[in-house]
Amino acid sequence: LTMLGVVAPTTVVEPILQEFRPSAVAFLFSLDFSGWHRFAVALDVTPWKGIALGLVCAGALSLVIPATSYWFIAAWLVPLCLFPVLQVHRRRTYLTASALVFVSGILRSSIRAVPLHTIQSVDVSYPRFGSAVDVGDIDVNIPGDRILMFGLRNPTRLAQLILDAREAGAGSAVSQTSA
What we know:
The protein has helices at residues 26-29, 36-45, 48-64, 70-89, 130-133, 155-178; strands at 3-7, 11-15, 18-20, 92-95, 99-104, 110-115, 121-125, 135-142, 145-153. It is an alpha+beta fold. The strands form 3 sheets. Strands 3-4-5-6 form a 4-stranded antiparallel sheet. The longest helix is centred in the C-terminal third of the chain and has 24 residues, at 155-178. The chain is elongated and about 65 Å long. The two termini are 34 Å apart.
C-alpha cells in the first residue's frame, strides 16, 4: 500500500509515510504482566470482539452438529481461533503527512484518523525483555485519550517519525498562515 483513502466529509488520499505493525515476537510479551502497565497492554491488545464473535459462531454451529461427532470439536475450535486471529491481522496503523490513521475491524473496517497537530506527546516503553530485541510499545497522547501501539520493532525510531511528521505539519501550517 502506498496510498490510503480516508473518507470523511471529503475524500482525502495521502501517501503513507510509515505502516506500524506488531512484531511477531511482540505477542510473547503480551503474557508479561510485570506491573500495571503491562497488564493494561495485555487487556488493550486482546482481540475481545474476535473471541466474542467466535463464541457466538461456535455456539450456533454446536446447535446444528451433534455433540457426539468429531465435527463438534471443530465447530468450537475453528471460530474460536479464526476470529481473534482475523481481528489482530486486520489491525493496522498508518502515518500520513497529516494524521495517524487506525484501521480495524473483523467483518467491516473501522477507520479513526487522529490529526498530527492534536498529538501532545509520544512515549516509548519496553516490556521486561523488549529492549534486548528492540520491541516496545508507543503511547500517543491526545487531548482526553491515549492510543497504544503495541509490540513495535524499533519503537524509538517510529516515535521520532511521528514527532517529526507532527513538527513538519506544524511548520507547513505556520508557513501557510503567514503567506
